[in-house]
Specification:
By secondary structure, this protein is an all-beta fold. It is built from no helices and 11 strands. The protein has one domain.
Length: about 120
Amino acid sequence: MEIAVEVEQNDNCFGVPERVFEVQGAKQKALRVMAYPPRGAYGWCRVTGWSSEEDGMPCDAYLVKVGDSGSGTAYLLYGGDWGVRLMPGDATEEWSLDSPRQWGEPYMLLEDPSEVEVLPLS
């Protein structure tokens, strides 16, 4: 099974052309990820998917083990058609494109699944 990720340029993040990954594990809902905020130290960050609905709104973000030509296997963190959105783990604000504490990424490829807090899907 394969998963294709393509994100057009949008208000959340820069665009990336379609990239196809070979799925090698079960999909899980992602809640937090270890990341570097634009201004801050490496640590746990909240994560959500970002959808183009209503000019941008949260949706689920997922983690799945995939084949990666560079490292053999990796863990793909992906969200909606506008990528994923992150904020520092201590932030309690609502998700918003207007927040200076939040930022977007088209997707993330991680080496270590322990860098993501997930919920298994039933």
